[in-house]
Amino acid sequence: MSTYEPVIGLEIHAELFTKSKMFCGCAVVDSTMAEANTCVCPVCLGMPGMLPVINKQAIEMAMMVGLALHCEIEPINQFARKSYFYPDLPKGYQISQYALPLARNGWVEIDLPDGATKVIRIRRAHLEEDTGKSMHIGQTSLMDFNRSGVPLLEIVTEPDIRSPEEAEAYARKIRAILQYLGVNSGDMSKGILRLEANISVRPVGSDELRKRTEVKNLNSIRSLARASAYEIVRHSKVYDDGGQIKQATLGWDEGKQVTIIQRVKENEDDYRYFPEPDLPILEISREWVEAVRAKLPELPDAKRDRLTALGLGRYEAAVLVAERPISVYFDAVVNAGADAKKAANWIINEVFRLMNKAAIEREQLNMIKITPDALAKLIALVDAQAISNNAAKTVLEALFTDGGDPAAIVLAKGLALVSDEGPILAAVVKVLDASPKEVARYAAGEVKVAQLLMGTVMREVGKGGNPKIVNKVLADELERRKV
User: Fold this and answer.
1) Which residue, 413, 436, 462, sits at the end of a domain?
2) DSSP characters for 186-246?
3) Using one digit for the tens of pLDDT, what is the confidence trace for 396-413?
4) Could you say which DSSP state residue 268 is in?
5) Inter-axis angle of helices 421-433 and 436-443, to 10 degrees?
6) Which domain covers residue 473, as residue numbers?
7) Which residue pairs, CB below 8 angstroms and at least 24 apart, start in 328-337?
């Protein structure tokens, strides 16, 4: 057992789905698709003499997130200049919030795989502007400033996380909340959502906060968990060897599964924060806060509780609400007529199995070929005993590959259940005639032999055999042969 425990705090940077940028009128575009430097202006390019103007839509979206995270929305907000010098920051500073952030002192509850729950405290959520994007081609570096100035919400936890599993659960929960609110898609492949982990370890039972390292710009939740696990082991070994951890900013090499030092970590003093002179103090009234609160949709916790009221287990419900696309898909299957418990079972156990096999992420559930209506129809066929569970799995695989109608696939593959006792009796007789020893053992009181014979008969009948009818005919024939 390790003598150290991890201490992890997370920073999540989420671009907001506003129509225009944080401090200018330029459109917010997909920076991975739009032609470089086509959505820029003198303000977001940091030209001398240009004056920023606060985006009201960004403020309201950030307020929605703060309220969803149970934060206090501060009545007085102030933007500040955060000075550092990188090519992707044209002004030489970033307009951010520092001393007076928009939201403070929140919390979220996470569900863990072992069924436990835990509250993670939110220290602050503040607004800032995103940077540009560097592209390196051979020995040349190019800059695209389409992303420069896009509203960016930074959500910072207290150091409450104690394992990579908790970090992963927290990140998934925040991503789900952002998706449900409609302020961010959660698509980490495009850099719209980025994770940063501050990691340290300390002796078990201690309450000290030791030197930490920050792993920057993690572009997947799996990378977050892997990088955290790597740093926990590395820190522990350094201390065991008598060394000390140096505070630093790290990158994560997904291919090599190691962290790489990027620079010695700056302290807050290095950023030389001071109030942004070109922007006024932002006052947020209680009436404005309540107007925004009234717009909040059903959030993951509320939906989880609604699903448990339908008979689902808490963890089962938590899995279904963890990603908004999954939640929407589940609702659509139920609205198409499927029982909620059965729909949950098929999605979690069978649909996810096929997606894992095909290396498709769960948030891409709305892109697979198994439509909600098709899954509901498949469940209905099983309920009506028109097909067996095994046959239904075969149909599901066909739907996953090619889409289509479950009934048509059943017909084309000859998977309909055979309930006619005539063909089933013929199969039973054939199997029992070929198994005199097993029949004798059954007659002698070894009733478990019937299960072995049942499997053989089902193979003889084929996937279309109705198990209930097969079992009845087999039992009757075995009893007849006892006489």
Assistant:
1) 413
2) --GGGTSEEEEEEEEEEETT-------EEEEEE-SHHHHHHHHHHHHHHHHHHHHTT--PP
3) 999 999 999 999 999 898
4) G
5) 100
6) 421-482
7) 328/366, 329/365, 329/366, 329/372, 332/372, 332/373, 333/372, 333/375, 333/376, 333/379, 334/376, 335/372, 336/372, 336/373, 336/375, 336/376, 336/377, 337/376, 337/380
**318 and 258 in one domain?**
no
Amino acid, res. 84: Y
Q: How confident is the model at residue 331 (pLDDT cuts 50, 70, 90)?
A: very high
End-to-end Cα spacing for the chain? 63
Best CA proximity match to 442, nearest among 477, 469, 480, 482: 482
**What tokens were used for 245?**
């951890």
Report the DSSP beta bridge partners of residue 7.
Answer: 200
Helices 372-383 & 389-402, crossing angle to 10 degrees?
160
**CA gap 192, 364 in Å, rounded:** 16
Rounded to 5°, the CA angle 329-193-99 comes to: 130
Contacts of 174 (CB under 8 A, 6+ apart): 12, 108, 155
d(CA 18, CA 16): 6
CA separation for the pair 68, 325 (Å, rounded) = 19
Shared domain for 61 and 127, answered yes or no, is yes
Q: Do the strands 274-275 and 248-253 form a parallel or antiparallel pair, or are they unpaired?
A: unpaired
Q: Which of 258, 292, 326 is the last residue of a domain?
A: 292
pLDDT tens for each residue of 267-306 = 666 788 999 999 999 999 999 999 999 999 999 999 999 9
Check: CB of residue 364 under 8 Å from CB of residue 407.
no
